[in-house]
Amino acid sequence: MCLLCIAFASWVLKTADPQSGDAWKAVLLANVSALSAIRYLRRYVKGEIAASEKKPNLKTLCYS
Question: What InterPro entries is this protein classified in (predicted)?
Answer without folding.
Answer: Perm1 (IPR043442)
